[in-house]
Amino acid sequence: MLKHCNDSNVAVVLIHEIYGINDHMKYATQMITAQGYDVYCPNLLNREAFHYNGEKETYQYCRNEIGFEQAKQFSATLKKKYETVVFWGYSVGATVAWLCSEYDGIGAAAIGYYGSRIRDYTDLRPKMSVRLLFAEQEASVDVHQLTERLSCTSGVNIEMGEGAHGFANPFSRFYHPESEKRALDWSFKFIETIWTGEK
């Protein structure tokens, strides 16, 4: 597990993508802790990170191994210590954050970056505030149709990022710095709103 504590009242549960705790997750941890929040990135694979060039093998492994139950149980321990717990996930991690949002009392908010598999769970009704950031270009889903359907869900706010899946990952060939900056600004303002609203 990656973790960094600033003695904050806010804990961010960072949920990794299918590759595990890799350079992107280390980078994201630094970005979030620089804002003063405590960050916990549990290793939901229970193994070393996969390399980007083994996507098919990685996806099959993660489909069987990564589940929201682990993230949900982990957040329960944080709720005893923190005023505010926020789920923040990338790709499959965004889908896990979305699934966690259905449960009352385990967190205050969920943020998901390009969680294309959310398409399988559009009937979910969140019990916390949710911010979803999608890429305008998604190979696996009609993102405009998906966001139109999700926009009818109470408590869900959606933003579109210019570029493709992975636009906020500086280690991806699809990295789009301007989209990442806008998405991070939007995410941090959201956390600040949630936190100050709870105090």
TrEMBL record:
Residues 10-193 form the Dienelactone hydrolase domain. GO terms for molecular function: hydrolase activity. The keyword Hydrolase applies. Gene3D superfamilies: alpha/beta hydrolase. The keyword Hydrolase applies. It holds the Pfam family DLH. InterPro entries: AB_hydrolase_fold, Dienelactn_hydro, Dienelactone_hydrolase-like. SUPFAM superfamilies: alpha/beta-Hydrolases. Keywords: Hydrolase. This is Dienelactone hydrolase family protein. It comes from Anoxybacteroides rupiense.
